[in-house]
User: Which sequence fits this backbone?
């Protein structure tokens, strides 16, 4: 049987995971024999049994939870109330597990982790900070705001890409149909290949090849698509692609500002809820997906640990731009660093969205240009083939 645990290892670092054991007591003893201090342990919940909870459902549930907490209702009663409202859906099992863990006396952050809900790491850290400061409702609202921003940004991208995706799909289908059914009708002209222009020969030969090997080509396309999806699921591959995109002129600025907005929003929320600077830096830096940016931020965090001011450490590493350094420097001098971080997040998010819109606006004309060029080349190849054999001037 698997047991989920949370512990402090011999180096004093927090670790979470799962271990196989016959009982909870045996799992605890095994971890303690390795020199660990076990903070919590409980049977791991199988996520496959309950299914995946949608982002919209999570947003609704945590909005309800923060509202109930603000009304003065206790955490256990709030969780039980929400669970009864969602009875029968995939969220109910997770909330039941969360409620049982709270009833056993576990801290809310630990119980939330044991519930198996697919939440970003900052949810757990902000929940822990809220419990320590007695401001759990505020902490959950901060986490929910960041989560909502991330989902809205992803939704905007998906919506903006729907039309270009449909356009590209229809264009590719049109090209495929022309190669499969139209071009092969003129394949007989290849008998006089010596008198055909190069473009006409290439178009007719390609059409004949596609028509003769259609099933093999479709199977190959399926294999390529499946293989590409599997490769893109690897975090290292996605990070490498994102790193290359960040070097492009327009797209790179958008990706960089989005990363700055996410980092600053999380840092501001964590510091505002009383999380120590170094802990907040570790968590916020870990959320940055750009490898180069994350390494610079981690180096800056080590400088902060050595006693350097955050704005100065970031400036030395070139982790953020001049606007960010000035805002953070002002926040440090005025003792309002969390507020300045949130202002930086809002500024970067607004600028990033504007850049995103410009990038997405370029996709549609580029898709039309590419698909139109492909169809135009096919048509031109056929016309050249016909005119070259009938001596009709072009």
Assistant:
């Amino acid at each position: 049987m698997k047991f989920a645990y949370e512990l402090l290892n011999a180096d004093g670092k927090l670790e979470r995971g799962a271990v196989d054991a016959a009982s909870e007591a045996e799992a605890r003893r095994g971890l303690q024999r390795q020199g660990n201090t076990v903070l919590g342990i409980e049977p791991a919940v199988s996520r496959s049994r309950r299914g995946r909870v949608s982002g919209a459902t999570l947003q609704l549930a945590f909005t309800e939870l923060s509202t109930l907490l603000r009304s003065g209702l206790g955490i256990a009663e709030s969780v039980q109330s929400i669970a009864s409202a969602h009875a029968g859906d995939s969220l109910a099992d997770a909330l039941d597990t969360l409620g049982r863990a709270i009833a056993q006396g576990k801290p809310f952050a630990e119980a939330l982790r044991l519930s198996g809900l697919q939440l970003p790491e900052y949810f757990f850290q902000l929940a822990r900070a809220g419990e320590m400061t007695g401001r759990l409702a505020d902490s959950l609202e901060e986490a929910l705001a960041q989560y909502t921003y991330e989902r809205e940004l992803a939704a905007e991208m998906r919506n903006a890409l729907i039309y270009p995706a449909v356009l590209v799909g229809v264009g590719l289908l049109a090209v495929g149909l022309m190669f499969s059914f139209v071009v092969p009708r003129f394949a007989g002209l290849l008998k006089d290949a010596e008198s055909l222009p190069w473009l006409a020969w290439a178009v007719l030969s390609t059409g004949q090849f596609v028509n003769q090997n259609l099933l093999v080509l479709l199977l190959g396309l399926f294999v390529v698509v499946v293989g590409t999806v599997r490769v893109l699921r690897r975090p290292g591959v996605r990070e490498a692609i994102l790193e290359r995109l960040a070097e492009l002129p327009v797209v790179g600025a958008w990706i960089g500002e989005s990363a700055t907005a996410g980092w600053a929003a999380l840092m501001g929320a964590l510091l505002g809820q009383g999380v120590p600077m170094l802990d907040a830096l570790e968590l916020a830096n870990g959320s940055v997906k750009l490898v180069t940016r994350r390494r610079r931020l981690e180096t800056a965090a080590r400088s902060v640990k050595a006693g350097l001011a955050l704005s100065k450490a970031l400036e030395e590493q070139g982790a953020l731009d001049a606007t960010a350094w000035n805002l953070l420097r002002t926040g440090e001098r005025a003792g309002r660093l969390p507020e300045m971080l949130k202002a930086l997040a809002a500024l970067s998010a607004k600028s990033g969205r504007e850049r995103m819109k410009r990038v997405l606006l370029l996709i549609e004309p580029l898709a039309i240009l590419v698909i139109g060029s492909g169809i135009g080349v096919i048509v031109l190849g056929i016309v050249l083939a016909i005119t070259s054999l009938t001596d009709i001037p072009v």
User: Anything to note?
Assistant: The chain is about 75% helix and 5% strand.
